[in-house]
Design goal:
about 10% helix, about 600 residues, disordered N terminus, 5-stranded antiparallel beta sheet, single chain
Length: about 600
């Protein structure tokens, strides 16, 4: 994998004495054994608390699943990391043949240190201010890289472009801060206010001064266009688990963060997230498990944040909320959209925050039909969770995104919500679960790992969008992808994980993964679409070669993971029209890498 250096004063001082042998590949570095032990202990804390979550909440929790997987495999990785390794030099800008299609991350050192782990770059977020572009992504290789430096550990990377996204420089891992217990674990959301000021929001775990493990959301700031990053600031955190007398008290996992900057006041930053609360002490839910969409607000550019605002909460194991997104219109009104899971349906919800910080009543956008097949994750005598996978056995956890028109034109203030939906075609599938029949007794033979039995349904997904002039009353859902599901036979095509943005002209764009050109519904391509009114859409294909849904190659990531979202953006400063978005692409070597695409 890659060893990369922070562009910080500390590292520059180090390079003054070691630069020549480093660039020749002769210098060796060795991690601090105490750091490896602290990292393993932190992973174990996460895995222990994770294992005690209610079954259905396990299926909804996302960001920490990589940490749980790492807890299992890190003892195998650690002996490799503990050896001295040749240090690497800085990354260079990556040239591209197509001026609109760019390679974002530098994969030249993939597989250097392991044939089994830590070379995945995926799940992207893109920010553009003028010609300065930053792409953040989950980077399993950063776990290797940060082992050789003081401070915390990282699962996050980034790349920077100064030519509008035509070439990128891979800057390495995101600074996790000096606390050895810090672990920044990805789910990036990148934002900017001008060509110098960028923000990187992501999940973080750490131990507080009393050694109590904490789950939180952190924000990092760059003042040089994304090339270097300050230590992360924790915007919100809650305890994962702690000793209460002689008992272990269960706590919280904060998950699926999102963030937005107020264009009318760039010092105001909104962060939303899901709180998986297993304390049994919340005022709203009493002694039962709880999931909640919450938000925190900063009025000083991310230096401090207010107390959590509860947007929506659901009580019990058989209900839940997840995957909130937040945007802010040109007048400073913050809108949120998320998914609410009930025993019988998944519904798309929306609301906005009032000027006094209170939450407006939630409104229904539409009911969603989840795509793919539903499986039980079972072993031994029990099933730990139920998950929904697309063909190729990878999760499509929550395909959802939100945007608002800030053009000042006729559609200014219009709120758009897009998602992937399986309502248009459902076929019987002999491997899967009948909806509602998920009890362990129906699936298990004691003492054996069960076979998944008949009969489920596979729902082929399309990309839908709904819009609202006021953020309250949403119109009918419209299909965005131009192809239609075949009405004859059992075949169909998946379109999934849409991302949406609006540009200064009021044009709306959506990009997604698409299988329309493969009759077997396996090969994945990338498509985008544009609209002037949110009702009629013109599709275009991103010029990449199709790739298969190959995963489980990197045992540093969750076994059913192939990225959960990819962002799309326009120029926040409003000086340039059009869109840029990064996405995962499987290279010819079948390593997950990041590409970006510019269009208008």
């Amino acid at each position: 994998m890659r060893i990369r250096f922070w562009n910080s004063v500390f590292i520059l001082c180090l390079l003054c004495t070691a630069l020549s042998p480093v660039l020749q590949g002769q210098a060796v570095v060795k991690p601090d054994p105490a750091k490896l032990q602290a990292f393993q202990a932190s992973l174990n804390d996460i895995a222990t608390a994770y294992s005690k979550l209610p079954r259905n909440h396990l299926a909804l929790l996302d960001g920490h699943t990589h940490a749980v997987q790492l807890a299992k495999v890190f003892p195998k990785i650690a002996p490799t990391i503990s050896k001295s390794m040749s240090a690497r030099g800085f990354k260079q800008a990556i040239a591209n043949a197509d001026p609109n299609l760019a390679t974002v991350n530098d994969n030249s050192h993939d597989l250097d240190f392991s044939a089994y782990a830590l070379y995945t770059q995926s799940e992207t977020s893109t920010a553009r201010c003028g010609n300065q572009v930053v792409v953040g992504f989950n980077d399993s290789g950063s776990v290797f890289e940060t082992a050789f430096f003081s401070g915390g550990s990282s699962f996050s990377g980034a790349a920077v472009s100064s030519d509008g996204g035509r070439t990128f420089k891979d800057i390495g891992f995101i600074n996790p801060g000096p606390n050895i217990s810090n672990f920044v674990i990805g789910d990036p959301v990148v934002m900017c206010t001008d060509t110098s000021t960028f923000y990187y929001v992501q999940l973080i775990t750490f131990s507080d001064s009393s050694s109590v493990p904490q789950s939180g959301v952190a924000i990092s700031k760059s003042t040089d266009g994304g090339n270097t990053w300050a230590d992360p600031v924790v915007a919100v955190n809650k305890f994962v688990q702690k000793i209460c007398g002689i008992f272990l008290c269960l706590g919280h996992f904060l998950d699926k963060n999102w963030a937005a900057i107020d264009p009318s006041n760039p010092s105001r930053i909104y962060i939303s997230y899901t709180d998986f609360d297993d304390t049994g002490t919340s005022p709203g839910c009493g002694n039962v498990a709880r999931t909640a969409i919450e938000a925190v607000v900063s009025n000083d550019g991310g230096q401090t944040f207010g107390q959590p605002i509860i947007v929506d909460e659901q009580c019990g194991d058989n209900v839940g909320v997840q995957a909130s997104h937040v945007v802010v219109n040109s007048h400073g009104v913050a809108y949120l959209a998320w998914e609410r899971f009930t025993p019988t349906a998944v519904v798309m919800m929306a609301t906005h925050l009032n000027p006094n910080g209170t939450v407006a009543p939630s409104t229904l956008i539409d009911q969603k039909v989840t795509g793919g097949d539903t499986f039980a994750v079972c072993g031994g005598f029990g099933c730990s969770e139920v998950e929904t996978d697309l063909q190729g056995e990878f999760r499509d956890l929550v395909g959802l995104d939100l945007a608002v028109d800030r053009s000042g034109g006729a559609n200014d203030g219009t709120v758009y919500v897009t998602w992937d939906d399986g309502r248009n075609k459902s076929v019987p599938d002999l491997v899967g679960l009948i909806p509602g029949v998920t009890g362990e007794g129906a699936l298990l033979v004691p003492g054996f790992t069960p076979l998944l039995l008949t009969v489920g349904n596979y729902n082929y997904t399309d990309i839908l969008v709904s819009s609202s002039k006021d953020g309250v009353h949403f119109g009918p859902s419209i299909q965005v992808n131009s192809d239609r599901q075949p009405q004859v036979g059992n075949g169909g095509h998946d379109h999934f994980q849409p991302a949406i943005a609006t540009d200064p002209t009021g044009t709306v764009a959506i990009c997604w993964y698409d299988r329309r050109n493969d009759p077997r519904n396996l090969q994945i391509e990338r498509f985008c679409a544009e609209s002037k009114n949110g009702k009629s859409w013109v599709n275009l294909r991103v010029p990449i070669s199709p790739f298969a849904p190959i995963h489980r190659l990197d045992f540093g990531t969750a076994i059913n993971y192939m990225g959960d979202y990819d962002g799309l953006t326009s120029d926040f400063t409003g000086k340039s029209n059009g869109f840029i978005g990064a996405f995962e692409w499987m290279s010819s070597g079948m390593n997950p890498d990041v590409k970006s695409f510019i269009f208008q």
